[in-house]
Amino acid sequence: MKREKINLKRPAQNLIEFVFIIPLLIVILFGILEFAIFYRNVSVVEDIATEAAVAASRKLVLDTMTSNNIADTSNAGFNKAAKAARDVVMMKRGKLGLSNLTLAYNDLGAGFGARPYALYEIVSTQTRLVDGVATPIITLVVDYRAPNEDGMMVQLTYQYQTLLLGIQLPVFGSTPVVLIPRDIPISSTRIKQYLIY
To answer: Angle at the Cα of 130 (from 124 to 133), degrees rounded to 5?
Structure first.
């Protein structure tokens, strides 16, 4: 008895497999690219914050430096450590693709120390809408409240916006479930540096 081969494939089966598999492979490829770009930005933010902390720790800050004008370079001027950290961020901003970024001092008030021994927040004048709120693209925090006892701390936060993907699943009658957010804050660790001068 001779057996016949049975062809179980239907003529359109290859086309259907192609239609389902190719979009899935493209999404996976874009996901890999997005993760690589994101991870690179995480590394760059950490590197910039480390360089800013080292540069700030090398500056001698006098008790008379109580100005809140970041452009003031006199002896009664702005905290030189915070300005040095800001200058490093300004020099390295191109690594994040932000060549036209400008940074300004945001006075937090007397509740965060008396200048020059205070918490300094330096933010970008350019903002990005994150959940409907205008948020600075870059925030640099320099904690110079007790530099002689505890050293100083620097932290950099970058509002990263995904380039390719931002995936939400709509749920009927409620807010959508976010699988991959469109805006992701990337923050460096709080880098503690003791004064070097």
So the answer is: 80
Extents of the domains making up the chain: 13-193
Q: Across the strands, what pairs with 118?
A: 113
Of the candidates 110, 170, 101, 169, the residue with the CA atom closest to the CA atom of residue 136: 101
Q: pTM for this structure?
A: 0.81
Contacts of residue 11, defined as CB under 8 A and 6 or more positions apart, other chains included, come to none
In the block, tokens 């809408």 appear at 129
Alpha carbons 78 and 170: distance in angstroms, whole number: 49
**Inter-residue contact 135 to 127 (CB < 8 Å):** yes
The tokens for 72 are: 């003031």
**What is the block-wise mean pLDDT of the chain (197 residues), using blocks of 10 residues?**
64 77 88 90 96 92 82 79 93 90 86 87 91 92 91 94 76 77 89 81
Residues in the chain, total: 197
**107-115: long-range pairs with CB below 8 Å, 24+:** 107/68, 112/145, 113/144, 113/145, 114/66, 115/65, 115/66, 115/67, 115/68, 115/79
Dihedral, 38, 99, 105, 119 alpha carbons, nearest 10: 40
